[in-house]
Amino acid sequence: MANFKTLDDLGADLSGQVALVRVDLNLPMKDGSATDVTRVEAAKPTILELADRGAKVLLLAHFGRPKGARNSTMSTSMVQGDVERVIGREIMFIPEVSGPVAQQAIGILRDGDIGLMDNVRFWPGEEKNDPEFAKGIAALGDFYVNDAFSAAHRAHASTEGLAHLLPAYAGRSMEQELKALDAALGSPTPPVAAVVGGAKVSSKLAVLENLVGKVQHLIIGGGMANTFLAARGVDVGKSLCEHDLTDTANAILAKADESGCTVHLPYDVVVAKEFAANPPSMRVCNVHEVAADEMILDVGPLAVEALGDVLKTCRTLVWNGPMGAFETAPFDAATVALARTAAALTKEGSLVSVAGGGDTVAALNHAGVAGDFTYISTAGGAFLEWMEGKQLPGVVALQA
Ligand code: ADP
Ligand code: MG
Question: Which atom of ligand 1 is nearest to the CA of 356?
């Protein structure tokens, strides 16, 4: 695994030093408070560890898309209360990210105190990764810690530029994420299975292309399986299907063949004439028996059982995308059943399981097994880019 420094590489006593810590505080909000504080919880160990080792901790984050200008509704002060509650300490809000006002505020902080700087995207230099802007921030601190893997696919001043200007370290959450992702696709124990589902092939083409060259088993479910079935000459009726991508689907299947990757498509499916909860027209059938007025909404029970058997032969699993339209009962059945099999194998110690993706995390929570996976990434876009095999600028900069 490529090398990066962690908090273990810092001195035990950090008193008198100022830590610039990039965290993800882009919380979903309703009526002025956060509806989900998972991101704060993720950053909590790093913040407390640095503070308890005596550093002045300066939090740096973006919040919404203010497009390079101040905007009172997108100030990080909006989440100050939520952050204080989760961290369990008082935090000083600093309405700048550089300059004399910020310097003065830092002068007031004592060792072990925490400051929250304003939305770094209020300044155009952030998204432009302007070195002059980054220098202004860097002047405030003695070292830089990046604990926001979810923003690591962006080459911005606070996610990438700062790492070149100050001694740079991965925070605990970043460290954990990088280790888990490495165990899943970087240097995994074979055989490796990938489950890829979700609505459309078009949104995950690069993911599929990367995976067929890396894993031994590619399990395709969800709406995107329909496009692959259609490419193989199956009539998928009214199903969600990207007919214009059948050539692309065939090219992916050919590449899989060359790479020794077995692609698993469903052979039985759950279909209905209308998309609603428990529709009367619902039935299970072979993929070759879908009627012209039916749509495929989930993978069938026989295929799910066979896929469970595939997972039993594997040592590593990486999962993105639900197997069916899981938000609507009972089209969650395949996703829930396969997730439970993966969770049980993980608990037995025979499988390392890593999953990510907005709807995937929701589906695994719905199945009640999120806690049983080896690692669940909440990083969204960064997780998908990593699944595409891309180098993430924020991670590369930590390795420099
Ligand atoms: P993630 O957010 O985890 O990356 P996606 O956004 O790619 O996942 O896909 C999730 C969506 O795919 C869900 O809203 C789900 O309802 C939809 N979906 C899955 N299977 C089907 C299907 N057979 N037909 C229509 N939609 C589907
Ligand atoms: Mg999604």
Answer: 3
Predicted confidence (pLDDT) per residue in 141-196, tens digit: 999 999 999 999 999 999 999 999 999 999 999 999 999 999 999 999 999 999 99
Q: Which segments of 204-298 does DSSP mark as H helices, in order?
A: 205-212, 222-231, 246-259
Average pLDDT over residues 221-232: 97
Shortest-distance atom of ligand 1 to CA 297:
23
At 112-126, the pLDDT tens digits run 999 999 999 999 999
In the chain, what are the domain boundaries? 7-172, 188-387
Read off the pLDDT of residues 317-331 as tens digits, 9 standing for 90 and up. Answer: 999 999 999 999 999
Closest ligand (CA of 229): 1
Q: Is the pLDDT of residue 281 over 80?
A: yes
Q: CB within 6 Å of ligand 1 — which residues?
A: 197-199, 203, 222-223, 240, 296-297, 320-322, 324-327, 357-360
- pLDDT at residue 2 in the model: 63
Average per-residue pLDDT in the chain? 96
Q: Report which bound ligand comes closest to the CA of 356.
A: 1
Q: In CATH terms, are 7-172 and 188-387 the same topology?
A: yes
Q: How far is ligand 2, taken at its centre, from the CA of residue 199, in Å?
A: 8
Architecture of the domain defined by 188-387:
3-Layer(aba) Sandwich (3.40)
Residue 329: other Cβ atoms inside 10 A:
11
Cα–Cα–Cα angle for 377, 38, 211, nearest 5°?
10
| Ligand 2 midpoint to CA 320 (Å) | 10
Q: How far apart are CA 217 and CA 63, in angstroms?
A: 39
Ligand 1 center–CA 322 separation, angstroms: 6
Would you please indicate which residues are annotated as catalytic (active-site) residues?
Answer: 39, 200, 358, 381
Regarding pTM above 0.85, the answer is: yes
Taking Cα atoms as reference points, which of 114, 166, 171 lies closest to residue 137? 166
Distance CA 127, CA 124 (A): 6
CA torsion angle for 163, 169, 172, 173 (degrees, to 10)?
20
7-172: CATH, from 3.40.50.1260, 3.40.50.620, 3.40.50.450, 1.10.10.10 = 3.40.50.1260
